[in-house]
Amino acid sequence: MVFFKKMAPKSPQIFITFSDT
Description:
Blueprint: H1 2-7, H2 12-20
């Protein structure tokens, strides 16, 4: 999910949600 983190570095909540999924 590194690509998503780079796309939304200001959205840690979204990154966590995708990571949990």
